[in-house]
Amino acid sequence: MADELSTGAVEDGDEFEDEEVDLTTLDDADLRTQMMDDLYDGLAEEIAEGTKILLSRGWDAEKVLGDVLVEGMRIVGIDFRDGILFVPEVLLSANSMKAGMAILRPLLAETGAEPIGTVVIGTVKGDIHDIGKNLVAMMMEGAGFEVVDLGINTDVDEYIEALEKHKPDILGLSALLTTTMPYMKVVIDTLRERGMRDDYIVLVGGAPLNEEFGEAIGADGYCRDAAIAASMATELIAERRNAA
Ligand code: B1M
Question: What is the C-alpha to C-alpha distance for residues 211 and 205, in angstroms, rounded to an integer?
Answer without folding.
Answer: 9
